[in-house]
Amino acid sequence: MHPDLEEFTRHRLAALSVAEVAPGELDPDADLVRTYGLTSLNKVVLVTSVCAQARVDLTVLTDDDLARMLTLREIVDTVARYAPAGGVV
């Protein structure tokens, strides 16, 4: 994964999660809904904020990209693929 984007995403997910969990304790491969109680609205908030952090326009994400974003790792990896040259913020 991309360390800076992963750290940002961990903090945002911990803040949005129903489960009380520290950012460092989040399992990058755990299902966001089943494990952390993320609602669909909170998933939108999370993906939007991660895209903004990475300077990725939401419109580049495909339906398949969105459908695959079920875990922290999948969100980070998908958004990082579209990040501009020079890395993520």
Overview of this structure, please?
There is one protein chain. This protein has 89 residues and is mostly helical. The chain contains five helices and no strands. α1 packs across α5 and α3 runs parallel beside α5. The longest helix has 15 residues. The model has no long low-confidence stretch (mean pLDDT 93).
Features:
single chain, 89 residues, mainly alpha, 5 helices
In summary, what is this structure?
This protein has 5 helices and no strands.
Oligomer: single chain
Integer average pLDDT: 93
N to C succession of SSEs? HHHHH
Q: Helical stretch count?
A: 5
Chart the SSEs and their pairings.
Blueprint: H1 3-16, H2 32-36, H3 40-54, H4 63-68, H5 72-82
Helix pairs in contact: 1-3, 1-5, 3-5
